[in-house]
């Protein structure tokens, strides 16, 4: 997949400056991955589909969200991709909202120091509107529009990690895999919430899951 093919799947305009930042991010990722094992080596050649489109599709679903918390940010998916796109969005974007602010921010939260050093390097080099937080997700409670995660934990545990964000009004937009239905069923044993599933643009087996009204089951 080319950058242009990736962008064609999105409902908003991806500026060339954003493509340039995404290309630079991919170059740094490939270089660091040789010594840090940030992502599966076999996924590097499929960077635009497996990682960028997978992350960017979240903005198709939540175009008005301006503050995001990425739990278990790891190599920067989806958080760094979202930060790059938010950096280059403006009011002339094709996202249909007359009230869309011109700035956004992403909190990249990870418990592993070496991953946070990598993320901090990316944020600094690309001048991204993002803050790196080296801590366990359950220890962090911020007021954001959306809490997200990819490949961090099964949904029952993930809802616990994100509980502080939900209590402060966040909605969840989560990237999940082929076991989504089973995870939702299991999570309902411990949590009360509303869930809506959407097909993933990057993998027919994947799902984008919208989580709302989260509270512990009585």
TrEMBL record:
SUPFAM superfamilies: S-adenosyl-L-methionine-dependent methyltransferases. Coiled coil: none annotated. One of its GO terms (molecular function) is methyltransferase activity. Its main location: cytoplasm. S-adenosyl-L-methionine binds at residues 72, 77, 137-138, 150. It holds the Pfam family GidB. Keywords: Cytoplasm, Methyltransferase, rRNA processing, S-adenosyl-L-methionine, Transferase. The keyword Transferase applies. GO terms for biological process: methylation. It catalyses: guanosine(527) in 16S rRNA + S-adenosyl-L-methionine = N(7)-methylguanosine(527) in 16S rRNA + S-adenosyl-L-homocysteine. Belongs to the methyltransferase superfamily. RNA methyltransferase RsmG family. HAMAP family: 16SrRNA_methyltr_G (MF_00074). This is Ribosomal RNA small subunit methyltransferase G. It comes from Asticcacaulis aquaticus.
